[in-house]
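Thread: farnesyl diphosphate complex, take 2
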Amino acid sequence: MSERRLQKDRLPRHVAIIMDGNGRWAEARGLERNAGHREGVEAVKAIVRAANEIGIPRLTLYSFSSENWDRPKGEVQELMRLLDHYLETEVDEVMRNGIRIEAVGRLDRLPPLVRKRLDDVMERSAGNREMTLVFALSYGGRQEIVDAVSQILRDAERGQLDAENMDEKTFSAYLYDGDAPDPDLLIRTGGELRVSNFLLWQIAYAEIHCTGTMWPDFRKDQLVDALLDYQGRERRFGLTSDQVRGPQSENS
Ligand code: FPP
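Output below.
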């Protein structure tokens, strides 16, 4: 299996996924869209397990965008129900596997019972160290940046921050996921080629892997393919190839 080709010492520290294609997966089968979301949860379970087995330290899943609130009421309700049910039924496995659950986004907009469930699971799992699983919920990348700027202005007014001390590291600390490492790899399923307002600041240097596989069909094999694709890339962070490869490569 291609998993054996993965270089364990070159795994991304953070993988972020835009889980797209649930609706089209369902429509292609003559099913209602929510059936695609339900199968999407099976993919979430499989990918969390696979990422943990492979040794990915941090996984962020774009589970509900700030724009998704405008979908038909029945679809929003079903997505909230699925999230709640996932948290309720997966918490034991999450704890057994040492997974810490976190969330980013405007969590205050979540229905109170879902918010409560999320807070409980986050609190219960806070000491886990094997892997961190982050749900992006009611999340928008531009909103995240605006929220950071608002907080920066408030802190500056209180005299806790001044313009001279502002740099990228200080700014990052104001984002929802604070000091967490940026995603090294961004995966998008469902065949579209866009970032859809996801982690706009954090993906500045992420490698992007887009696949036509619809999210409900995404499983460990597809994750391994994405990781192999990532490991085949040369990450230059604005430098030249020679600089990245070191002095020996210039003569080779
Ligand atoms: C995109 O598919 C997917 C979403 C809007 C939400 C992703 C949600 C899940 C996988 C289930 C939620 C459950 C948990 C546990 C987080 P789409 O509906 O935009 O697909 P389409 O582009 O084919 O219409």
